[in-house]
Amino acid sequence: MKKTIFPVLILFLLSFASFAQQATFYNDIAPIIHRNCTPCHRPGESGPFPLITYEDVARRANFIKKVTESRYMPPWKPDAHYTSFANERRLSDADIQLIADWVNNKAPKGKPGKVNDVPTFTTGTQYHRQPDLVLKMPKPFLIKGDNLERFVVFRIPFELADSMNVEAIEFISGNKKLVHHANYAVCAAPPGIDPNAGDDFINVTEDDRRKNEQYRPLQQNMIYYGGWIPGASYESYPKDMGWVMPRKGAILLTMHYAPQGRPEEDISGLNIFFTKTPVKRKINLISIGSGGIGEKDIDPYFYIQPNRVKTFTVKVTTPAMDQSLLYVWPHMHLLGKKFTAYAVTPQGDTIRLVNIADWDFKWQELYRFKHLVKIPRGSILTVEGTYDNTAENPNNPFNPPQTIYSSGDMKSTDEMLTLVMLAMPYEPGDETLPLELP
Questions:
Q1: Residue 390 burial (CB < 10 Å; 0-12/13-18/19+)?
Q2: Taking the C-alpha atoms of 50, 184, 154 and 163 in order, what is their torsion angle to the nearest 10 degrees?
């Protein structure tokens, strides 16, 4: 009798231990979801459905398992073995396995902890506090339901009591599901230029493009430049670093609206967060390639014949001053296949910046380094882009493929090879300075 009971008891204890170790939503899954998914999957953000409560997650458990195992979600394109970034959303193998085990065990709920297990958010922002200034389009813009993409440049004037030091900036939209991506230029109004004059917006897709000339005086006085794509959040800077908002000027907000099957409206703009701490180190924007430094030096000449996979390179020598990099922002369009950027110092050392081996036009953003990256003066910055203009490319906008150029007018059916970098003059010790944010 004892011989019979003993093995049964062992099996019972092992089964109990296994059950006790099973992952539950509150103990194991919620922290992963809330950290990596909920910032986008909540009301007012770009995710198509919320992932906040147990019920939100459990009803899509199998789907979440599938998209995390394939690494389709959360979206993160840079190769972590090439360079890792501070704003990385890439799940660890252990996280992915934990989600899979939880789903396979029928998604047990578990018990809430002593604190609130549903995260709270500041309304209207992903930042930790309310903005000091909100600049928006003056009225809703109607996107026609004709399944065509549109590029529209909005002029949003502003006038402050004085110039202000900027701690963070954030793109906002009342209908983010309409927005493929957005770029914004913060421009000062020089004497004699009225930032309130002219058209409120220019529909680059349908209007006479010559109308864009009315914004030229503002564009020539650009103070800062940034952008947003689904999945991105705010852009912020460590203490003593940032840029200065001019007292008077305008935001030139370029919206890329995705094709829509029915008419919908949008009001987009920017949240801006000021700081009383002086900006001791001003951040500058450097653009390499299409529309920037070295545009005419892209090798070979930038056009892509039909049925070709083609690689282009642009090399730029850094100026006479060492630079410290905070962010890099790669950019290509629908034919993009691979993007790599690096620097080679005068001593022959290679500094890896970013590598995206499987480019996806839908997911591109600013990548923030964990520490400031020093680029010594005289280094050669190299940007390489590979493009697939064959019928085998499912993103090719033309069937059969057509010759593609870089026209500079932002159409996704044209192409670009661009690396935007946020940088500032180097100071000794920068390379050990972590980019801790507020």
A1: middle
A2: 110
pLDDT digits (tens, 9 = 90+) for 71-107: 989 988 999 999 999 888 889 999 999 999 999 999 9
Q: Residue 234 carries which side chain, given as an amino acid letter?
A: Y
Sequence letter at residue 338? K
Distance of alpha carbon 320 from alpha carbon 359, whole angstroms: 33
Domains along the sequence of the chain with CATH: 2-104 (no CATH), 133-281 (2.60.120.310), 285-432 (2.60.120.230)
Cis peptide bond upstream of 140, omega within 30: no
Helix, strand or coil for residue 268? strand
C-alpha to C-alpha distance for 160 and 272, rounded to whole angstroms: 12
99 neighbors 64 (Cβ within 8 angstroms): yes
Where b means 16+ CB within 10 Å and e means fewer, 265-289 reads ebebbbbbbbbeeebebebebbbbb
pLDDT tens-digit readout, 351-375 = 999 999 999 988 888 899 999 999 9
For the chain, report the end-to-end CA distance as a whole number of angstroms. 67
Contact between 275 and 246 (Cβ < 8 Å): no
Q: Alpha-carbon distance 369 to 342, whole Å?
A: 14
**Residue linked to tokens 């689904």:** 230
Q: What is the pLDDT of residues 177-186, one digit of tens each?
A: 888 889 999 9
- The conformation of residue 181, written as its DSSP 8-state character, comes to E
Query: What is the pLDDT, as a whole number, of residue 322?
Result: 95
pLDDT in tens, 244-301: 999 999 999 999 998 889 999 999 999 999 999 999 999 988 899 998 899 999 999 9
| 1: Cβ contacts below 8 Å, ≥ 6 apart | none
40 phi/psi in degrees, rounded to 5:
-100, -35
3-state secondary structure of 10: helix
Single-letter amino acid, residue 401? P
